[in-house]
Design brief:
With 256 residues, the protein is α/β, with parallel strands linked by helices. It has one domain (5-254): Rossmann fold (3-Layer(aba) Sandwich). It is built from 7 helices and 9 strands. Strand 8 (178-187) and strand 9 (190-195) form a beta hairpin. The longest helix has 14 residues, at 208-221. The radius of gyration is 21 Å and the shape is globular. The structure holds zinc ion (ZN).
Length: 256
Amino acid sequence: MTKKINVTIWNEFRHEKSNEAVKKLYPDGMHKAIGKGIAASDLNIRYATLDEPEHGLTDEVLNTTDVLLWWGHCAHGEVKDEIVEKVHRKVLEGMGLLVLHSGHFSKIFKKITGTNCSLKWREEAEKERLWNLEPSHPITQDIGDYFEIPNTEMYGERFDIPTPDKLIFVSWFEGGEVFRSGCVFERGYGKIFYFRPGHETYPIYHNETVLKIIGNAVRWAHSDYKAEHICPQSKPIETLTSKDIDFGKAGIEQGV
Ligand code: ZN
């Protein structure tokens, strides 16, 4: 039997408790809607939320997570820096990370990208058309040339991110803007996918195509190779001819 992919879906889980429209769309939270939507026999899905101890991201959870999904919006500042540090280290060591929608402004995404991650926005329930730029990529399998979301929040350029390692989707909005909606990054051994759809007052996480892409991205981002980053002093493989030359050495005592 093949090993299942351990997926942890993290959600801030605040709007669903305080906003009636959001509560109606996602009575159990967006994390549960996503989990139900991507459920499959090859995935082992768990949930974690902001208000749990350690935001639900204990060492035990992080050590057994292959892919972490991140949805946050109004409480990015409440996420503890030490948890962000741990998540960041895990990504560098090979954990996959999917950053969803307003997660663009999360501490973890800013740390991953090293940029401000700002963008333009408008909440007018307009149409969005997402163009599939990479039809051969694992994330876009069974998606077609494009798909549409009838009512969504607009995100517009300029999106302040580094040039993605691969741009997977570009959105066009009814109001005229465009946006880099699907972006792939690699950091250390970790694969990261930023995926734009997901505004909390629209039924985005009930959209079959959106869920299909998230499921594809989970499988793409997972890796069985995980390793700590160390910086070892290395013995030469060949005999060195420079051995007798009296150059100075630096850092030997410190082991660096
Ligand atoms: Zn939003």
